[in-house]
Amino acid sequence: MTLPAPRYITYVPLTDLPADPANPKGHEIERVIASITDHGFVETVVADERTGMLIAGHGRREALIEMQIRGLPLPDGLLLDDDGGWLVPVTRGWASKDDRQARALLILLNRLPEAGGWLPGPLATILEDLATADPDLLDSLCFTDDEMENLLRQVDPETLPQGPDGTSTTDHDDLYSGDGGLADSGDDDRATSTCCPACGHVFSPGR
User: Fold this and answer.
1) For 127-151, how does the pLDDT look when each residue is reduced to its tens digit (9 = 90+)?
2) Position 158 pLDDT exceeds 80
3) What is the mean pLDDT of residues 144-159?
4) What is the b/e burial string over 14-49, where b = at least 16 CB atoms within 10 angstroms of the residue's CB?
5) H or E segment and range at residue 103
6) β-strands 86-94, 45-48: how paired?
């Protein structure tokens, strides 16, 4: 006899996803909405079988409700039921032992992703590529100017990708003012800018 998998994914009506009122995590809902709009619904929410409430995915749930209220299109990754309701993929099969464990996991699942930090070299390489190839996609990551400057201070510019011939694609002298600051890029919409030390590209990570 084959036993059922201990974890499985099923589609559940958005209206049947109760949030845990004890959830202490705040959310930047507009950023979550933008992420779902740009990339689809990638990460499933997780239900606690003991309580019937979410153990992970409160921000995504709130964002989907707001998207539906606004009349936005069904995101990629969701399904429609016969009445036009949104069906959300939910990971099922986990059950907490008691309320204390459930509330501890509510916090832990949010703390773990941030605990390891970032590897400066690989992160800077990806961001530098986005800065040159797709600035709008870079902007969607919402790195602030201070975060970018701190990151770039931690990496060796020689290790980052440059132009196709291995040389800088931009004249660095044109990007800096005489007092060592950034020169005006000439684009009012991207006035607050950061310069990549490898390619010289000026971009606005915090827009």
Assistant:
1) 989 989 999 999 999 998 899 889 9
2) no
3) 85
4) beebeebeebeeeeeeeebbebbeeeebeebbbbbe
5) helix 99-115
6) parallel
Residue holding tokens 């994914």? 9
In degrees rounded to 5, what are phi and psi of residue 18? -75, 135
Q: Where are the domains of the chain?
A: 8-115, 120-203
CATH architecture under which domain 8-115 falls:
Alpha-Beta Complex (3.90)
CA distances from 152 to 124, 157, 159, 160, 199 (A): 7, 8, 11, 10, 12
pLDDT of residue 169 exceeding 70, the answer is: no
Distance CA 16, CA 19 (A): 10
Q: What is the pLDDT of residues 97-138, one digit of tens each?
A: 999 999 999 999 989 987 888 899 999 999 989 989 999 999
